[in-house]
Q: What sequence folds into this?
């Protein structure tokens, strides 16, 4: 299950990277999460004072394929580039009350 959590983290980062690219379409999605969904979750997984996940973030995660997101767990460069804390990202499904515990 730990590998699944890591994949979620990496997928969030990868989608953030794709979504922030100037050519990215507004309706693009990855693993069931839209660009807007990833943007809604970013304050909860980055920075020195992360916020609790918003309703928008949790809603986006509700529709996400968490196993698909776990696929990106090894994208360390993306994690660093977009300043995503993988430990915080792995906590989102639980903080959003989607699952009692979650690990990739």
A:
């Amino acid at each position: 299950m730990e590998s699944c959590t890591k994949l979620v983290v990496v997928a969030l980062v990868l989608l953030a990277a794709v979504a922030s690219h100037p050519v990215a379409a507004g309706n693009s999605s990855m693993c069931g999460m839209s660009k807007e969904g990833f943007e809604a979750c970013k304050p909860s997984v980055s920075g020195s004072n992360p916020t609790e996940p918003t309703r928008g973030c949790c809603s986006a995660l509700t529709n996400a394929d968490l196993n698909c997101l776990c696929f990106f767990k090894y994208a360390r460069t993306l994690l660093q580039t977009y300043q995503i804390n993988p430990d915080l990202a792995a906590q989102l499904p639980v903080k959003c009350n989607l699952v009692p515990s979650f690990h990739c």
Notes: Confidence is low (pLDDT under 50) at residues 21-25. Helices lie at 2-20, 35-45, 55-63, 66-70, 76-81, 86-95.
